[in-house]
Design goal:
Radius of gyration of chain A: 17 Å
CATH topology of the largest domain in chain A: 60s Ribosomal Protein L30, Chain: A
CATH class of chain B: Mainly Alpha
Structural class of chain B: mainly alpha
CATH class of the largest domain in chain A: Alpha Beta
CATH topology of chain B: 2-methylcitrate dehydratase PrpD
Largest sheet of chain A: 6 strands, mixed
CATH architecture of the largest domain in chain A: 2-Layer Sandwich
Number of helices of chain A: 7
Oligomer: heterodimer
Number of domains of chain A: 2
CATH superfamily of the largest domain in chain A: D-3-phosphoglycerate dehydrogenase, domain 3
Strand content of chain A: 35-45%
Chain lengths: 224, 294
Amino acid sequence: MALLDIIGPVMVGPSSSHTAGAAKLGRLARRAWNEEVNKVDIFLRGSFASTYWGHGTDKALIGGLLGFMPDDERIRDALEIARQRGLEYRFFAESIDGAHPNSVRFVIYKEDKAMELVGASLGGGVIELQEIDGFSISLSGDLAAIITFHRDQPGVVAAVAGVMAKKGLNIATMRLHRQGRGGRAAMVIEIDGELKESTKDEILNSHSALMRVIFIPSPESDVR
Amino acid sequence: MRSFEEILKLCEVDLEFHEAVVELESRESGKSEDLIYTNMSYMLDAMEQSVNSAINADFKGRMMEDEARRFERYIAQRDVPLSGKFIAKASHIALSVSQYNANMGRIVAAPTAGSCGILPGLLFAYRDLYGPSRDMLVKALIVAGGVGEVIQKRATLAGAEGGCQAECGAAAAMGSAALVYLEGGSPEASAHAAVLTIKSLMGLVCDPVAGLVEVPCIKRNGTLVSLASLCADMALAGIRSVIPPDEVIDAMRRVGRALPESLRETSKGGLAATPKGRELEKKIFSEVPPMAEI
């Protein structure tokens, strides 16, 4: 709603892009990982790398990874809280040609599992998830979402949409990305409401070209 | 809502400024008028919490001292400060909330985090001195939001795009219109209060020292409440901007675009580029711990 863009958001200062946006990015990474984060490497790019300290970007990113909302005052003490909760983190700076000036790459680990995410803070607390495991996508994180990785074949969209229709899930937005015809493809579907974990397997089994399905819970709910 | 004209036209048919804003918002977003009011009421609560927390919090700046506290002591010692009780109180609150923001406190961006002290300064100083109903304050916040939306649609609310006129300037204009509403002024007077404010700070640059939301941002929050108050008084007196309100905002957009990049939140010009500004920047960056030690 427009008026709430003017009066609001409620947030921990000092910067909507470098603090509130960073907290949202951390939280979106946590939602994509969809469980407690125990180990993460964070690579700051551009202005995030050069001014993170003055804006508490580091605390906001970690706070988000801990599940804190952008208006949670615990963000101020997020680094200490991370140590208490056993979240291991490391920060690095990296410079990547063509990267958004306020962007960050997360690599989240657990035993033999890992996930790499790149996100950017676009200003005014608006964010975008730009990459998952090397695949370029675009996701605002404002809603719950389903991301599928599949081979570019006929029928995949219909199969996935069919499962969703059966489950009564309303598609809010939908975007397809592919690395060439017949190659690797991804589908990003934002939905209204919440997702059930059991739906995930049903989607995965709905078409033989589907390789992987990621569920991102809505911003109001936390990871399982 | 894209223009003051649009808002004032609705007001001609017997609506108040805030009612016109809510009607337009409801029409554009599909949200019910009740929900819009409830949302703004929540924001007023959050703003009040930020004021209460901020005036009790100690401030530790990277470049400046606790000036809110200093000003509070000064006000307490004087019967009536030179700038008057209302402005001094509004300024104290604005300084406090803005300092609180710099210290990672929880605030309401209004319209931005860097300008988050001005509206609470004006609204809560008014409450403390004149005791309006809570409902009036929510409506005043809606008036402010409507002004902010016109500025956002016709110009910008981002310092990186339009300089500080778009952040602290917009906040002061929003607050000025809100004060006119609280004082019982007409919708037209609210619109003119907003643009009288903008006219007096048009071209204000965004030049944060070391890129931090501290110098000069905090004190600009503390000073611009005075301009907002005076412009509200002028508009209540019947003074009108010769240039129509929407045209003032259009000029603001063009001025913002004409500002060189060095004066749009890049810390390359203005106060950030003074010898002292550079010295502070150097000192601050030398204190940044290596990333491996965060």
